[in-house]
Amino acid sequence: MDEKKLALIFKALGDENRITIVNLLWDGEMSARRLLSAMSISQSTLSHHMKILCDSGIVVSRKVGTWTYYKVSMEGVKVLQDYLAHLSRARKICLENLIYDEPCR
C-alpha cells in the first residue's frame, strides 16, 4: 500500500471545492472553461485546485490547443477503493475477533 499516494488523495479530497470538482467530473470529461462556469470560483482558484487533484492522481488532464480538459482517473479511484476495502475488511475481522474475545490486530 502506497501511503504517500493515499495521503495525496485524501488531501485532495479534503476540500469541498475539490469534492465538487470531482463530482462534476464524475459524469465525464470537462474543460476548465466549463468547470469555471459550473462553479463560483476564479481561474486562479480553479488552477490551484486542479493542480492538487492532478498531483494526487485522482484527476488527469489533457491539452487541446489552448484548452485543458479534465476527467476522473479510474486508476486513482481504484487506489482509494482498494484502501477503503482494506479498512472494511480489517474492521470486519476486528469485530469478529471482539465477539470471540480476541484482540484486534
Describe it.
This protein has helices at residues 3-12, 16-26, 32-38, 43-56, 74-99, and strands at 30-31, 59-64, 67-72. The protein is an alpha+beta fold. β2 (59-64) and β3 (67-72) form a beta hairpin. It is elongated, with a radius of gyration of 18 Å.
Output the keywords:
105 residues, single chain, 5 helices, 3-stranded antiparallel sheet, alpha+beta
> Treating each run of at least 4 consecutive H or I residues as one helix, how many helices?
5
Which spans of ≥5 residues are poorly predicted at pLDDT below 50? none
Helix content: 55-70%
Beta-strand proportion = 5-15%
What kind of assembly state do the chains in view correspond to?
single chain
Q: Main sheet, how many strands, which sense, barrel?
A: 3 strands, antiparallel
In short:
With 105 residues, the chain is α+β, with helices and mostly antiparallel strands. 65% of the residues lie in helices and 13% in strands.
List the topology elements.
Layout: H1 3-12, H2 16-26, E1 30-31, H3 32-38, H4 43-56, E2 59-64, E3 67-72, H5 74-99
Antiparallel strand pairs: 1-3, 2-3
